[in-house]
Amino acid sequence: MDFETVSAEDFGKSLRGIGLNLLVRDVVALCGVLETVFDMKAHQVSTDFAIVTYGDQVFQLHADGTYHSNPLLSLLPESGARGAGLEIRLYDTDPDVAADRGAAAGMHVLQAPTDKPHGLRECYLVCENGYAWVASRALG
User: Fold this and answer.
1) Residue 38 in contact with residue 32, Cβ under 8 Å?
2) Residue 97: HSE in the Cβ half-sphere, 13 Å Cα cutoff
């Protein structure tokens, strides 16, 4: 599927399994951070929407205004963190590289790269919307 040209209707019909859609204050800005820090690719980027790919995984970003008639919008805080309790785990990203890039891109390094007892080296980076992006790699 060509994510640059697919229509909204065809894209929607193609979605299967579990989907991830993040409501964000600034779609364009977060796309830039995700591309810079995690080597993701953003498609059809506008102030309202973007399709984002991470390897063969796909998810969506929507600006708040696109949810004007969606009941979820009423639950969002007007300021502060939005993603409390949500970890977006990126198992194919070097946590040491991501931590350096994330800090340079203005993300908050919640936890520096650390070897964990569950067999992963991880770092926690928080974007301006409050979502926790966890760069992870298997240990040795």
Assistant:
1) no
2) 10
What gap in Å lies between CA 18 and CA 5, rounded to an integer?
A: 23
Yes or no: say if 100 and 38 are a contact pair by the CB < 8 Å rule: no
Strands 132-138 and 120-126 come out as antiparallel
Q: What is the 3-state secondary structure (H, E, C) of 24-80?
A: ECCHHHHHHHHHHHHCCEEECCCCCEEEEEECCEEEEEEEHHHHCCCHHHHHCCCCC
Q: How far apart are CA 139 and CA 61, in angstroms?
A: 31
Amino acid present at 84: A
CATH number given to 8-138: 3.10.180.10
Domain boundaries, the chain: 8-138
Query: Tens digit of pLDDT per residue, the chain (140 long)?
Result: 999 999 999 998 998 888 899 989 899 999 999 999 999 999 999 999 999 999 999 999 999 888 777 776 666 667 666 677 688 999 999 999 999 999 999 999 999 999 999 999 999 999 988 899 999 999 98
- What pTM, to 2 d.p., does this model score? 0.85
